[in-house]
From TrEMBL:
Residue stretches making up the Recombinase domain: 170-292
InterPro entries, A to Z: DNA_bind_recomb_sf, DNA_bind_recombinase_dom, Resolv_N, Resolvase-like_N_sf, SSR_resolvase, Zn_ribbon_recom_dom
UniProt region (Disordered), positions on chain: 249-270
UniProt cross-references to CDD domains, sorted A to Z: Ser_Recombinase
Residue ranges annotated for the Resolvase/invertase-type recombinase catalytic domain, each copy included: 16-165
Naturally occurring in which organism (per UniProt): Compostimonas suwonensis
Domain of life: Bacteria
One family name in Pfam for this protein: Resolvase
PROSITE patterns in UniProt: RECOMBINASE_DNA_BIND, RECOMBINASES_3
UniProt GO MF annotations: DNA binding; DNA strand exchange activity
Protein name: DNA invertase Pin-like site-specific DNA recombinase
């Protein structure tokens, strides 16, 4: 941190010199734009005889001031300005602020924190004078006006690019700049999709990526991350339209508003890693309300086993009194106030899980999987057809409403009906997807099945297999109460 002493007629003022750099869009991620700004700003400082410490250069890369994105280094610089009189050096004043509100925030600091702005392009002005403030307000008004027009032009251009199926933005995991396929990363995405469609949870896929894949997380080589995979990253990749060669476009949605992926506009002009059908199935599985999450991912039969008294799903628990952990674990029906039929049933977890394991292995060892039938493929195709038709109806409704051919109530009713059709079709896809959990299993080989159950399959994989095979798993109450296990308490029914 350097402070520069300047002398006036009455006193010596210690002034700090701060350089601020910003570029709105960095398509390559190489920061070339801000580096050019840095060179120009430091050259201006040298001409003016200003000394700049390395820590006094603030940079926000790929950050648009107009789109209301956060500018962390801009906030840090404001905090530094509060320390004393400041000389702020920028390439152009629109790099510093582009909206009147941001300028007024700076002007509010002037009363106690004098600020002078030096610009490579456009010269200098002093916010401590009326003339300087007038000039700054005129410049920011013009910048805001131009930003509005620029945003409109960008939106129209982005819409046209989306309709053509052009690649948008910087490189993404699996693809280089412009949508060029990166084979090594594409193979990782293919494995992620296969594992998820086979019933593995996002958490187990994340563990595989971190512990076994040997492949670092996206942007690991940029220094922006620690190279560790997170479940949110896995999900964002799997639901993205781009990995199936499709173009998504929803300009009204902000980051995080589309947890299961943005709306797909049409095919893109880059190579796909998975099929469009697989993307639809992945999204359907994630939006399926029957999807088992939470504690059920570490407990084999939570919410799969049901109570013979009330029909509710059993949950896992532990009894602190007992000689071993295996004997302390149990599944029970949770009591609910106001529902006297709930609660009062429990069963030993180790006993119930052993019975289920033997039944499932016997089932898989004594049968062969049916080949993919036209009916199964037809169910997927029919569901996807309903989804596409409903989306087309929503587009038609929007056009008719915009043209004044529909009232607001008619448009709303039609859109609700179309959204309901999409939801029903996604549920149907979710039911078809359950059969994917059985692909690749050593069907008919009891020894291999036992080894896989004990040493290879994770709890989420076992749960996916159970969901695909078991129609119902009911635990009846024990006549004498308690959780004492009796095999005859278990009623397990397989799907046809």
């Amino acid at each position: 941190m350097l402070f520069r002493a300047t002398t006036t007629s009455s006193s010596t003022i210690t002034e700090q010199v701060l350089v601020y750099l910003r570029i709105s869009e960095d398509r390559t991620g190489e920061e070339a734009g801000v580096e050019r700004q840095r060179d120009d700003c430091l050259a201006l400082c040298a001409r003016l005889g200003l000394d700049v410490a390395e820590g006094d250069v603030f940079m926000d890369n790929d950050t648009s001031a107009y789109l209301d994105k956060k500018r962390p280094d801009f906030a840090r610089m404001l905090a530094r300005i509060k320390l004393g009189p400041s000389r702020v050096v920028v390439w152009h004043v629109d790099r510093l602020y582009r909206r009147p509100r941001e300028l007024e925030d700076l002007i509010d600091l002037v009363e106690t924190h004098p600020i002078r702005i030096e610009a490579v392009m456009g010269g200098a002005f002093d916010l401590n004078t009326h003339e300087g403030r007038l000039m700054a307000r005129q410049l920011v008004a013009m910048a805001a006006y131009e930003s509005g027009h620029k945003a409109d032009r960008i939106r129209r251009a982005n819409r046209q690019k989306a309709e053509r199926g052009d690649w948008h933005g910087a490189a993404k995991f699996g693809y280089g700049t412009g949508g060029v396929l990166i084979p090594e990363q594409a193979a990782v995405i293919r494995e992620m999709a296969d594992r998820f469609l086979a019933g593995q949870s996002l958490r187990s896929i994340t563990a595989w990526l971190n512990e076994e894949s040997g492949f670092p997380a996206p942007q690991a080589n940029t220094g922006k991350t620690l190279g560790v995979w997170h479940a949110t990253t896995v999900k964002s990749i799997l639901v993205s339209a781009r990995i199936s060669g499709q173009r998504a476009y929803e300009p009204g949605r902000r980051h995080g508003d589309a947890p299961n992926g943005r709306e797909i506009l049409g095919p893109g002009n880059w190579p796909a890693i998975i099929t469009p059908e697989e993307t639809t199935r992945i999204r359907a599985m994630l939006s399926n309300p029957d999807r088992r999450v939470g504690a059920s991912s570490i407990n084999l039969l939570s919410a799969i086993a049901t109570c013979g008294k009330c029909g509710s799903g059993l949950v896992s628990g532990k009894n602190t009194h007992g000689p071993s952990d295996a004997k302390r674990r149990y599944y029970r029906c949770m009591p609910v106030p106001g529902h006297p039929e709930r609660g009062g049933l429990s069963v030993s977890a180790s006993g119930l899980e052993a019975v289920v394991k033997e039944a499932v292995i016997a089932r898989l060892a004594a049968t062969t999987l049916p080949a993919d039938t036209p009916e199964t493929g037809g169910a997927v195709a029919a569901a996807m057809g309903r989804i596409l038709a409903a989306r087309e109806r929503m587009e038609d409704l929007a056009r008719d409403y915009g043209a004044g051919m529909l009232s607001r109530s008619e448009y709303h009713a039609g859109r609700v009906a179309a959204q309901s059709a999409v939801h029903d079709a996604e549920l149907a896809l979710g039911r078809v997807n359950r059969g994917s959990a059985l692909k690749g299993l050593p069907i008919g080989d009891e020894a291999a099945l036992r080894h896989a159950w004990d040493h290879e399959w994770t709890v989420p994989q076992k749960r996916a297999i159970l969901t695909a095979l078991v129609d119902s798993l009911v635990v009846q109450p024990y006549a004498n109460g308690g959780s004492r296990f009796r095999p005859e308490r278990v009623e397990l029914t397989f799907k046809a």
